Structure formats: structure tokens, C-alpha cells
């Protein structure tokens, strides 16, 4: 078992080294990710952008331990994910990673509060029960902080069907943060929201980084959403094609336009307008 990452000299929260994912064989081969090297700093909000099919989801899934690499290495803190067996990957996802999805993925029969606390209920073996109970008690203060930050105090007894999309996504964010995971991966978190609810959710993700010290890596198609991040990583054809710090919607759009002109599809884009 690798050492506790917190005892090492603050490695990046997530890291890829020559990370590749190849689907299919022969003529049907798709190189979804092609020898990617990248670091994601702890305590930062990073957005991953790029054209459809550029490898964004593949990179996120490999970094989160949701999929296996064809070659290369992925690290979560000091832990090399590539090479972990299924059991270790399951524990890693449960204990050290939080997820926010486009579809919210809340349990419909549970209240908002029960949904938020779910990750603390799920963990492990009977012999861990006492440690779990202690962790839960310690988490009460963190729960209250999250609920206050996300503006959910008067919604805790509601079931998902009784909440707006924006409220459901805020519950999903609280659930992703409750166990203080090393990294929260957000996959198109505003894809199902109107622009006002989307802006609220993005503000909360940014506050969770700036005020609560968390680490967020988000895939998005939306330049305005990406501009909430501290950094935007651009992917094209499975490779890193750009890196923008302190992004604005304009700088992100300019970066995406540069990608299109690089691959010669600028005319297609202009024609589509
Ligand atoms: N299970 C699979 N089998 C075969 N090819 C796949 C599979 N999953 C992804 N791909 C291919 O790998 C490439 C990268 O896919 P990926 O989903 O990572 O892109 P993306 O940037 O997230 O795209 P989008 O923005 O459309 O969601 C694409 O060419 C895709 O068709």
C-alpha cells in the first residue's frame, strides 16, 4: 500500500504521466488519450475543455479510477491508480474521490440530508464502524458549513423531486464534498441547468476551492463555465493543446478558436455559424 499522500511533500492532487487510452484494434483503433503529461494542483479549480471527442471524459475517468489506462500512469496524490486492483480502486473512489454529474444522480427516496450524508454511511467493514461513527460526529460541523455555504438549510427534509435542478445539483455538490475527498471530479455539472442556476453552482464550486480548501477538476463545454476556474486545460485529439491560467470567457473562446484553426476546421466552424 503506498504511503499516505498527506505525509509526502504536497504532490499535485492528480497527475498523468504518458497516459494513453486506446480503443479498438486495427483500422478501428481510436487513440482517445495520447501520452498525456499533466499535473493538477491541490487546492485549485481546473476546467478541462476541448472539442467533442478530444478525450476530456477519458482523461477524467482515468484520473478518477473509473476506467483503466492502456499505458502510462495516473496518480491521485502520491497513489498510483494505474495498477491498482478492482478492490483498491473501489476503495479509492469511495474514500478519496467525489463526483458531481450532469444528471445529479441523487437517490429519489432519500431526503436532501440523507443524500448528502450517504458517502459517510456507505463506507466499509463492521470493524470500521467505530471509526466511522467518530468521523460522522466530526463531520457534523463540516455538514453544517456545507449546508450553509450551499444555501440548503431550508431544503434538508425535501426529496429530490421536490427540489429545483439547481438545488439538486447543490445537494450533489454537498454529497461530493462531505467526506472531504482529495479531489472532486465534476462532469458537465451545469449541463442540465438554466444559466442562473448554472452560475450559482459554479460559484459554489469556486467557493468550495477558495474558502473551503477543496480541489475541483471539471469537464465542461461552456467557456463561461470554464472561466469560473483558476485554470483551463485544453485538449485536442487526445493531447494537451493549451493551458490558460486566470481564464476569462474571452481567453477561453480565443483558445478554443486557436484549436479549431490548428486542425483546419475553422472554415467548418465559420460555416456552421
Ligand atoms: N468505449 C469506447 N469505445 C470506443 N471508442 C471510444 C469509447 N469511449 C470513447 N471513445 C472514443 O474516444 C475518443 C475520446 O472520447 P471522450 O469521450 O473522452 O471525448 P470527450 O472530449 O469527452 O467528448 P464529448 O465532449 O463529446 O463528451 C472519441 O473519439 C470517442 O469516440
Describe this structure in words.
This protein is of the alpha/beta class. Helices cover 38% and strands 22% of the residues. The chain is built from nine helices and ten strands. It starts with 13 loop residues before the first strand and ends with a helix. 39% of the residues are buried. Adenosine-5'-triphosphate binds next to strand 2 and helix 1.
Report, as a whole number of angstroms, the end-to-end distance: 53 Å
Identify the overall geometry.
globular
Q: Can you tell me the number of structural domains?
A: 1
The CATH topology annotation reads as: Rossmann fold
Q: How much helix, percentage-wise, in residues?
A: 25-40%
* Order of helical and strand elements: EEEHEEHEHHHEHEHEEHH
Report strand %: 15-25%
How would you sum up this structure in a few lines?
By secondary structure, this protein is of the alpha/beta class. 38% of the residues lie in helices and 22% in strands.
Amino acid at each position: 500500500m503506498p504511503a499516505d499522500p498527506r505525509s509526502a511533500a504536497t504532490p499535485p492532487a492528480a497527475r498523468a504521466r504518458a497516459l494513453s487510452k486506446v480503443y479498438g484494434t486495427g483500422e478501428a483503433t481510436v487513440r482517445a488519450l495520447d501520452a498525456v503529461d499533466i499535473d493538477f494542483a491541490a487546492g485549485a479549480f481546473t476546467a478541462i475543455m476541448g472539442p467533442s471527442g478530444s478525450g476530456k471524459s477519458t482523461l477524467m475517468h482515468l484520473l478518477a479510477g473509473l476506467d483503466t489506462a492502456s499505458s502510462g500512469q495516473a496518480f491521485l496524490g502520491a497513489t498510483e491508480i494505474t495498477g491498482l486492483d478492482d478492490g483498491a480502486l473501489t476503495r479509492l473512489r469511495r474514500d478519496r474521490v467525489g463526483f458531481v454529474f450532469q444528471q445529479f444522480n441523487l437517490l429519489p427516496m432519500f431526503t436532501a440530508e440523507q443524500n448528502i450524508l450517504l458517502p459517510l454511511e456507505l463506507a466499509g467493514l463492521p470493524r470500521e464502524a467505530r471509526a466511522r461513527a467518530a468521523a460522522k460526529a466530526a463531520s457534523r460541523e463540516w455538514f453544517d458549513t456545507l449546508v450553509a455555504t450551499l444555501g440548503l438549510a431550508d431544503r434538508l427534509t425535501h426529496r429530490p423531486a421536490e427540489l429545483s435542478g439547481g438545488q439538486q445539483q447543490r445537494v450533489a455538490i454537498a454529497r461530493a464534498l462531505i467526506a472531504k475527498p482529495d479531489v472532486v471530479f465534476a462532469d458537465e455539472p451545469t449541463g442540465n441547468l438554466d444559466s442562473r442556476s448554472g452560475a450559482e453552482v459554479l460559484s459554489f464550486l469556486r467557493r468550495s476551492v477558495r474558502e473551503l480548501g477543496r480541489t475541483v477538476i471539471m469537464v465542461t463545454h461552456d467557456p463561461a463555465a470554464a472561466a469560473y476556474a483558476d485554470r483551463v486545460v485544453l485538449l485536442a485529439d487526445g493531447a494537451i493543446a493549451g493551458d490558460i491560467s486566470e481564464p476569462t470567457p474571452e481567453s477561453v473562446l480565443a483558445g478554443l478558436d486557436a484549436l479549431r484553426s490548428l486542425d483546419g476546421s475553422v472554415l467548418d466552424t465559420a460555416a456552421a455559424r
